[in-house]
Amino acid sequence: MRLKKLLGIVGLGLSLALIVTGCSKNSSGKKEVTFATVGTTKPFSYQNDKGKLTGFDVEVAREIFKGSKDYKLKIQQIDGDTIYSGLDSAKFDFVGNNLSYTKERGKKYLYSYPTASTPSVLVVPKDSDIKSYDDIGGHTTPVVQGTTGASQLEDYNKKHSDNPTKLKYTEENITQMLSGLNDGKYDFKIFDAPSVNSIIKSQGLSNLKTIDLKSSEKPYIYYLFTSDNKDLQTFVNKRIKALQKDGTLDKLSKEFLGGDYAPSSKDLVVPNKK
């Protein structure tokens, strides 16, 4: 009998605990939304000196959900190679990590409005004989296989088979690549200006300079959602529009990207909207 009473008391306690927990969880009425980012791609996503995850993509996400009555934001740091597989398996709701638009991704995922433009620059040693994009033939550059940058230079080599660039496939991150370029390991690197400027400054890569590249189109960065997450996409885009209008995007762009890379109101377009 004592055992039965004891078990009954324990069971009642567990039941009450579950009820209390359930009420606490539901009382806010907010849906928890998980935002995933890599956390190693300064200035877009990185840990500051205090170990806090920050960066342009992270702080814009915080501003988007700030004061929301419907959503509560949870930020999760992940490995770079799981960003799309995790999105596919619904481990998180949306991702952001200096992500550009590609036709392949556009067929599979929903895109937000752009949050910033990321024009590419040509990075070379200060004493380099490379003066423009037309001079890269015959020179060495590091690339990661499967990336947009690698594909563009592979296409360049097909068109310039008489004097192709020398592609060095690597698993290095952009900081390591630029450090190698600074030390004479490579001849040039093409990458986005905000990342390059931030790394050159933070790493003291005094041997490097940048050359602006002409482009008929502005490259942008976005947040990505699964194709069935239209309600979240709508909410995020509404908030991006408000943050552009009140100057928050411009403020965060100058703080983290080192310049005025915020989109204009006319730039607020979903790239793969049908």
Brief account:
By secondary structure, this protein is α+β, with helices and mostly antiparallel strands.
Task: Please describe the structure with a list of short key phrases separated by commas or semicolons.
single chain, 274 residues, alpha+beta, D-Maltodextrin-Binding Protein, domain 2, 2 domains, 6-stranded mixed sheet, 3-stranded antiparallel sheet, 9 helices, 14 strands, disordered N terminus
Explain this structure to me?
The structure is a single chain. Helix 2 (56-65) crosses helix 8, helix 2 runs antiparallel to helix 9 and helix 6 (174-182) crosses helix 7 (193-203). The strands form four sheets. Strands 1, 5, 6, 7, 8 and 14 form a six-stranded mixed sheet that branches. The chain is 39% helix and 23% strand. The protein starts with a helix and ends in a 17-residue tail after the last helix. It folds into two domains: 31-116 and 220-267, 3-Layer(aba) Sandwich (D-Maltodextrin-Binding Protein, domain 2); 120-212, D-Maltodextrin-Binding Protein, domain 2, CATH 3.40.190.10. The protein is an alpha+beta fold.
